Amino acid sequence: MIDINKKYCTRNGREVRIYAVDGDEPRPVHGAVKSQTGWVVSHWPKDGIQSVYEGSNDLIEVKPRIQRTMWLSLYPNGGTWLCLENSPVGHDCLAFVKVEIDVEEGHGL
Known about the structure:
Distance between the termini: 22 Å
Order of helices and strands: EEEEEEEE
Largest sheet: 3 strands, antiparallel
Shape: rod-shaped
């Protein structure tokens, strides 16, 4: 079911605004889809799927992205240490590697 508190886009990646999820059946989800010229009013069934086929206006939840820079210290014995600051931990550190994390929330969990 579509949740008014979550963010959505269309299956083909266009931005969506959801205004209500309690409209009249059979399409109680009301909102708008961003086009090249502005916002176009639209409405969807409770599940956000407009047809049994993969339609371009079907709603897909947009999950927040997690973006962080981490640093990985590598040691001779195979040990590693992950830290947020850009300074190696320990004097015997062999390498200090910058790791950029950019994933969708929940990815890999």
